[in-house]
Design brief:
The chain has a single domain, classed as 3-Layer(aba) Sandwich (UDP-N-acetylmuramoyl-L-alanine:D-glutamate ligase), CATH 3.40.1190.20. It is 47% helix and 13% strand. The chain has twelve helices and ten strands. The protein has a ten-stranded mixed sheet, with helices on both faces. Strand 9 (204-206) and strand 10 (213-214) form a beta hairpin. The protein is globular and about 45 Å long. Bound molecules: ligand NPW and adenosine-5'-diphosphate. It catalyses: (6S)-NADHX + ADP = AMP + phosphate + NADH + H(+); (6S)-NADPHX + ADP = AMP + phosphate + NADPH + H(+). This is ADP-dependent (S)-NAD(P)H-hydrate dehydratase.
Length: 294
């Protein structure tokens, strides 16, 4: 991998998501997103809303918090259910095209069981975010399971750490990560053998045997809780459509990162931000940009 990253330029791939007249929801794929423990249901709802608005055929939320596991009247399209106490069995029955775990997941024993089941799941794309990354940082058993998954199914797992999560994974300080982000993303790839999206200003995307790419879009208006959850839902939706529209997880991740940051820039140009720019507004702007680029 060269030390100077190339510029991310992935929006041209969006035309592959164009829909033929006969297509139905089965062609857009089924996504299961796991997270939403007590007090953090919003994180999973944001990821779910992004997934729905970016085009997944079915969006299913496995919500860990019983008090939040009910239909959302604002967004009844989301299939929200209480996370099953037998995650392995649940995943076997649901047959998702894409799995994502982390937004608002927490670090409970139940959260760990779900993460284990996701890491041991069959060969489907897996997005790992937020607390799921923190759990891996704290457990050599989970890290081994992640490495093993990548040995069996290379290119099927993407991690989306912000600098805080990256620091925990590498056992470094956030300041070390930010001083040399290219070196940090290389270390994360080497440690996990995954596709890695190191978020923050000038997000980096890297993977084994690929050039490192740097996103030139984005702005500090994106510094609002929930913005990363939107990215997780977006990667999942684009990957799910990619299964039948010839976009792999790497390509879908590149598209989602650039679309996410470009939507935030577009909103800022219109005066919706940087101050007060919300993740929910960003989802709707991403949908508009995506449809304009088909
Ligand atoms: N509506 C909801 O329910 C929401 C729920 N959420 C859920 O909350 C859970 C906790 O997740 P979290 O990310 O808020 O806290 P955490 O992992 O402790 O890291 C924060 C620290 O990391 C750093 N840092 C981050 N970005 C950085 C950057 N660009 N550049 C540099 N540093 C950066 C920074 O450290 P500092 O610089 O302050 O030392 C910051 O303080 C998780 O499950 C999540 O899904 C959220 O999604 C929000 C919406
Ligand atoms: N100054 C910035 N410039 C560009 N992008 C930013 C900036 N600050 C935050 N972002 C982006 O916003 C998102 C924040 O994600 P994250 O920290 O995981 O949020 P949360 O955990 O609250 O959902 C990431 O995509 C990150 O790249």
């Amino acid at each position: 991998m060269p030390s100077k990253p190339h510029t991310l330029s992935a929006l041209g791939l969006i035309s592959r998501l164009s829909r033929a007249p006969e297509e139905h929801k089965g062609h857009a794929g089924k996504v299961i997103l796991v997270g939403g423990s007590a007090g953090m249901a919003g994180a999973l709802l944001l990821a779910g809303n992004a997934c729905l608005h970016l085009g997944a055929g079915w969006t299913i939320l496995e919500m860990l918090d019983p008090a939040s596991a009910h239909a959302d009247h604002e967004q009844p399209e989301l299939m929200i259910r209480l996370a099953n106490t037998d995650p392995k069995q649940s995943l076997k029955q649901s047959l998702p095209d894409v799995l994502a775990i982390g937004p608002g997941l927490g670090t409970s024993h139940f959260a760990t069981q779900w993460l284990k089941a996701c890491l041991e799941s069959e060969k489907i794309p897996l997005v790992i975010d937020a607390d799921a990354l923190n759990l891996i940082a704290d457990s050599s058993e989970l890290l081994n399971a992640l490495q093993l998954r990548n040995q069996h199914y290379p290119g099927q797992t993407v991690l989306t750490p912000h600098p805080g999560e990256a620091a925990r994974l590498l056992g470094q300080l956030i300041s070390d990560i930010q001083t040399d982000r290219v070196s940090a993303v290389k270390k994360l790839v080497s440690l996990t053998q995954s596709i890695v999206i190191l978020k923050g200003q000038h997000t980096l995307i890297a993977a084994p045997d690929r050039d490192i790419l740097q996103c030139e879009q984005g702005n500090p208006g994106m510094g609002t809780g929930g913005m990363g959850d939107v990215l997780t839902g977006s990667i999942s939706a684009i990957t799910a459509q990619g299964v039948r529209h010839h976009l792999n997880l790497w390509e879908a991740s590149c598209v989602a990162v650039q679309l996410h940051a470009s939507a935030a820039d577009s909103l800022m140009q219109k005066g919706t931000g940087p101050i007060g720019l919300t993740p929910s507004e960003t989802i709707i702007e991403m949908r508009t940009l995506l449809n304009n680029l088909l």
